[in-house]
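Sorry, can you check?
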Amino acid sequence: MSPDETGSGGDVSGGGDDRIGTILAGRYRILSLLGEGAMGAVYLGEHLKIGRRDALKVLRPSLARDEEAIARFTRGARNASGIRHRNVCAIYDFGTTEEGLHFLAMEYVEGGNLTHTIEGGGRLEMARATSILHQAAGALQVAHDRGIIHRDLKPDNIMLARESDGSDLVKVVDFDISLGPPDGEGARVTRHGYVVGTPEYMSPEQLTGDPLGPPSDIYSLALVYFRMLTGRLPFDGGTAQEVMVNRLTVDPMALMDAAPDAGLPAELEAVLRRALERRAEDRFGSALEFAHAVGAA
């Protein structure tokens, strides 16, 4: 979600606050740092000619010669730019600066992510959680219809903006590590055995390094929904490794055990059980099918 570079003022070859106030690619003024990750940093930027504020994701300079990292970054930008849906952050620009920095400019979402909402207020009311689920499922469905798998769906990657009536407007972000349809590049993009995603929200097939399809994202979405409803995840463990092993060997915690006082309908238990089946072929056939089953419970 961010680009980075200079055109007039300051060296942006460094990182963090060093880039604030500089010009990226001759057309974006970097206003502030929004966050940093393993692949790079995300900045709030302003387009110099039209005044629009964008989120600018800039690949780390140390990765400028890493062919795998560049291929993954480019593939993700290509995948995300082809997804047109009101619940997916729009991609506006992508390129490489004269200094060799690779960047991505995308829609800036004013508001926090779902993690902040859950941590700030605990579990969500079922109606609100279900609305967020339906919107996220719609975004995933459009991606899946194009042969694109997100691979890292989690509360951090579900942004919550506001509709005019104050209700949640979901924006799914970080399709830049998504897996797209075969295009002659796939075998070179990720080294054999390399696992992409966040362990707490990975599907069993991600944990074991098996091929991924839409059911993997559906599993992750079910984990997100479970956490929205209960404030926790359905697998226990003293360490992250234990939690991952349990996901491959034991059944998920029942909704009624995780939140006995939440008043959740009993029919919802079976829906989540199916979405969290260990075998991908035993889950719902599509993200929208899962969302519709939740709505009917």
Observations:
- The chain has ten helices and eight strands.
- The longest helix spans residues 126-145.
- Strands lie at 23-24, 28-36, 40-47, 53-59, 91-96, 102-107, 158-162, 168-172.
- The longest strand covers residues 28-36.
